[in-house]
Structures are given as C-alpha cells and as structure tokens.
Automatic annotation (TrEMBL):
Positions of transmembrane segments: none
GO biological process: formate metabolic process; respiratory electron transport chain
Keywords: 2Fe-2S, 4Fe-4S, Iron, Iron-sulfur, Metal-binding, Molybdenum, Oxidoreductase, Repeat
A GO CC term assigned to this protein in UniProt: membrane
Protein name as it appears in the record: Formate dehydrogenase subunit alpha
Organism (species): Deinococcus koreensis
Protein family (similarity comment): In the C-terminal section; belongs to the prokaryotic molybdopterin-containing oxidoreductase family.
Cofactor: [2Fe-2S] cluster; [4Fe-4S] cluster; Mo-bis(molybdopterin guanine dinucleotide)
Residues annotated as domain 4Fe-4S Mo/W bis-MGD-type: 8-63
Iron found in the keyword field: yes
Amino acid sequence: SAGREGYIKQTKTVCTYCGVGCSFEVWTKDRHILKIEPTHGPANGVSTCVKGKFGWDYVNSGKRLTSPLIREGNTYREASWDEALSLIARKMTEIKARDGADALAFIASSKTSNEECFLMQKLARAVVGTNNVDNCSRYCQSPATVGLFRTVGYGGDTGSIRDLELAGLVIGIGTNTAESHPVLATRVKRAHKLNGQRLIVADLREHEMASRADLFIRPKPGTDFVWLNAVAKYILDNGLESRDFLARWVNGLDEFRETLAPYNLDYAEQVSGISQEQLKQIAHEIVQADGTCIMWAMGVTQQCGGSETSTAISNLLLVTGNYMRPGAGSYPLRGHSNVQGASDMGAVPTFVAGYQNVQDEDVQRRHLNEWGTPLPRNKGLDNHEMVDAIHEGTLKFMYLMGEEMAIVDSNANYVEEAFNKLEFFVVQDVLFTHTAGFADVVLPASPSLEKDGTFTNTERRIQRLYQALEPLDGSKPDWQIIQEIANRLGAGWNYAHPSEVMDEVARLTPLFAGVSYERLEGFRSLQWPVHADGTDTPLLFLDGFPFPDGKARLYPAQWIAPLESATEEFDLHLNNGRMLEHFHEGIMTFESPGIKSKVPNGFIEVSPELAEERGIKTGSTVRLVSRHGAVKMPVLVTARVQGRQLYMPMNVPNAVDAVNRLTGSHTDQTTHTPAYKDVAVRMEVLSLD
Ligand code: SF4
C-alpha cells in the first residue's frame, strides 16, 4: 500500500536471516519499522522466530554506510559515487590488461537477491571474462549439493517444509534445527508431539532437538559416513531394502553393495562409537516408517568428507525407497536467506544459472545469443582457491559483495594476510564490516527492506520481496551498483528493475523457464523447477530423476577420516555452531539491543567431567590453542557436551572471530568447503573464577 509521509505502510517481504524463508508484512511509518506481521507465508504460516520479528534495527542503525569510502593510507575518506566507481573501473581495466581476466575475482552474497547474484556472475563472465565467481554456500552447503547431484540429480530439498510433517520418521544429522532453522523445527516438533512422528537425532551435542528425540546418538566426530553406511549395509544384508523401488528407479546397486563391504556393524561400532543395537534400531525404524526424511546441516557438510557423507545420506534414502513420495527424502537445510538462490543463479565457478555447465556447447550458444559474448572457458576459482591464488600472487583484484569473509572463512589469519596482499579490493556492504577494513574501496549497499527482488529458500521456493523503505541516503541496491560498474566497463546494461533480470534468467535457464514477477505477485511463490507454463514443483522426482534414463544412481562414496584427530598436544575436539538469537556473524543482529542483551558475550561449553578434571567452573577463563591460532574465552560448564568435546557458538558479540582463529585451511575434498567442525585444541586455564 502507498507510503505517503506520516502514513503507515504495509509491505510484503521475506526474512533476511535464515533459509527457512519466512515471509510477512512489515509495517513502516516513514523510516520507522513498527512491526512484523506474519499472515500467510507459504513456508511459515503465521510464525517467525526472534530474529525475523525483532532483528531489524540494523536497517536504521547509525552505523549504516552512507557514502563510498576510498582508502588513504590507514584511513578512509568519503568519496562521491562517481569517483569511487571510476576508480574501481580503472583498476579493473588496468589489472585485466596487464594480468588477464583471471587475475580478477567476484564473490556474490547469500544475503542479496537472486537478481543481484545473477548480475554478479554476469559481470564476471560476460563483462570481465572470467569464471572466478563464487558465493558463501562454499562455506556451508556445497557438499550437500554435490551429494544430491551425484545420486538424484538436483541439489535441493526433495519436498516442501510442510512435507516434513507427513514423514513417519525424521532423522536430523549434524543440525541444531531448533536454533538454526527455528520455524522449520516447529513443524517437526509439532508432528513429533501430536502425530506420533518418530525422531532420531545424531549429533555431538545435546541440543533441544536431541533432547526431544526418540533416539539420540552421539557418533565420534567426523564418523557419520561410517554409521550411515553400516545401516545401509545391514538393510541390504538382511533383505530389508525397498526392492521394487530399486529395480524400477535406481542404478548401481551391485557396485554400491561392494563398496559397503567394510562397514559391518562391528567395524562401525568401533569407529563411530554407536552400539550395534542402536545401528540395528535405526535400520528397522527406517524400513518400518511410513516415509523417512533426513535433514542435515553443517555438522555433516563442514568436514573433510562432507560431500561423501551427504552422498551416503542420499544413498541410504534410495536403498529404502524414500524418494518419489510425500513425507520422504533429503532435506539439506540451507543457512542464509538466499544461499540456495546464490548458487541457483550461477554465482559458482563451474555453472551458470540453473546448474548449467559453462563448458556445455548448448549453454555456450544460448549465452552467446543472449549476451553477445561467449562464456569464458577457463576453470574458475572457488572462494578457497581464491585465497590461495592471492597468496601465490596470481589473483590481484577482488570484488566482494555482502560477505564478512575475513571472519567466516576458516583460518582467519591466513585470509587476512591474503586481503592485505590484494592489489585492489572492493567490499560492498550495508555496514562497515571487519572485512571492509581491508578494502581499497567500500561501497554502501541497501538491505533487503530497501529494494525489490526475490530470495529462494531451503525448499527451492522463490519469493518476492518488495521495497518497504527508500534506500538510505547515499546507499544503493546492490543490483544498481553492479550495473553501474558493468557500464563503466562498457557493458551497456539497461535494467530498469530486477524483474527484467529475472526475465533474462528465465530465458537462459530451463530450471527457471516459467518464473516471472507476475507469477510471484504478493505472497505467491514458485518452487523450482518452474516450467515454461508456470507450473512449479513442490515435490521433486514425481516421475523419475533428472538423468537420461530417469533413474537415480547409488554412488560409491569413500570415507574420508577427519584430519585433526586429537593428539597428545591437542587433546580436545572443538565443535561450533549458531545460536537462535544471532546470525550473519552478528553484523545485523548485534544492532538490535534486545537481541544482543540476550546473548551479550561468547563462551566455551565444557562438559562437567572435563571441568572436574581441569578444576574449572562456569566463569573460569581459558585459552584455547589450536595448530592455527589461540583465543581466550570464558567457560560455561554444561552437560550438553560430553567428555573431551568442546562447543563454541560462532556468532555472538565479542567472539565472532574466535572460531576461525582456531580453524585450519583443510577442506571437504570435493567442494573445498572448510572443515570447520574438524578442529583439535588444547585448553590452558587462565583463571579459575
Ligand atoms: Fe523464519 Fe529463519 Fe527468519 Fe527466523 S530467521 S523468522 S526461522 S526465516
């Protein structure tokens, strides 16, 4: 409705925080945000969590960037848009002319819209001529996407969030769902409490979902692959598999069966610590359930073998016939509001939008027709490789949009050193982040409430966000900034509105062929694939899998053991994760005093048995030392963790960078997702009180 001065305006938007994708109306009067009113969001109904309801103070924070900044020595001076953009274009042109297009790199953001992510990869490919483009799904869910591509052909949740309520059994592996995906968790909690749904949780730490579970198992760190394969082997050895489904819809059973040979119950018990009785129980629960959904998140993916374990999850679902029907399938839970969309839109080195391979001749031809320029064919760098390439001196320029990379990438000291080595570094964000402090130019962007666009949530649902507020004076929507940079490089883009970008996505991308803003009007939404006639796909795989013969593939994955096992010197395992109250490295939620006061400081969770052994208690201060760095932290003694395992929340005030001062640079081998959850430390007691 209209936003005349002094009048209350209601605008439909999508939450800027997690991948559940709650949508609601935001009530504003001038620049005041009066309230958030969830009415009938397709993902959330009438629910939100504390962040969606109260986490909006950052939009009017006095810390908002309101002018481009140009570095002068160790400080910054305000500059006009014209001066800042001209400087960026001049540097890009110089570096490309001297060192080639692959000396430049671009990072899109899962906090920005689909259209903005699409334009960022178009800038990289069509204007500059490099595939060096990535986004922060590299830090979280890329391994899940690989596991699903290998086995079922699409890297997205099998069904809708609502379908989770239909499952007879939900298994959560390495997901602290109640805190990281709160509104989605309420659906599982409700079905578990009211509908007799069974719940199994596998995790290191006894969080809320673990406490509610019918069975809670605590595998040793990094061993999920082993117990999952043992369950699959037990099912096959005992003839409990879904034979008709396998015969009709799945390839590769014989080879898969062979790769399972080592994973007998005895071996799995030794490696994972899960008893043989529990492994059998899990197998029987799955085969007896009327539909099993497996949800997983970063406890699985942020490991050296994250892609392999994600593959093992999908293999187990195939063996038991848990695809192609409601209330069954894979649910990798996407972290940020548009982490699904950032990859969908091609902000990754190997694919353009819709996961089309840049090397494919048809894809090349279609883009040449649309853009008038061929797609680059050189192998692009992902985020992790970009940092190495800066250290090696081959990557000179980076344009980073909406990403606190100096804090969220692993081995923060190494990343900061890289940023200091860049010849030219552009950071675009809403607030002056820690990463911005390394930039040569900082560009002030507008947050989601100040622009039109779309986000895609964890269930592949594309939803509209409408502009509720004018961009704060001095800032601009990311899509406009990217367009202005492209045009200073001679691109001649002329997008008047993000809807025109989405029209282009639809023309180039079979997965989004039928997407248009008309079809996304208001609270309407579409779940991809969206066909040319506009029909969408709430449930993937209703009539087969997107492989040439329509059959899924059991993929023979390999176990990759954790690299940082405890040693005499580093004798403790450090785990980390989110808290309900905070998000996005805290950049946004710390600006809400009410939320900040709920969790004002960082801490390290220590088990009662370890606390007793070391003579420490809640409030003691310790120094954690890893092979890569050290941090000081107050102790919270809690039975949520056990034995020699520690847990540290990663996005709380005064400790946002603590986790990645300790993590190393080792990664999932397929995707280069950092193995954040594979850290060995020692603990030195600094004070007992
Ligand atoms: Fe919904 Fe996630 Fe936003 Fe909470 S943070 S309101 S669960 S989208």
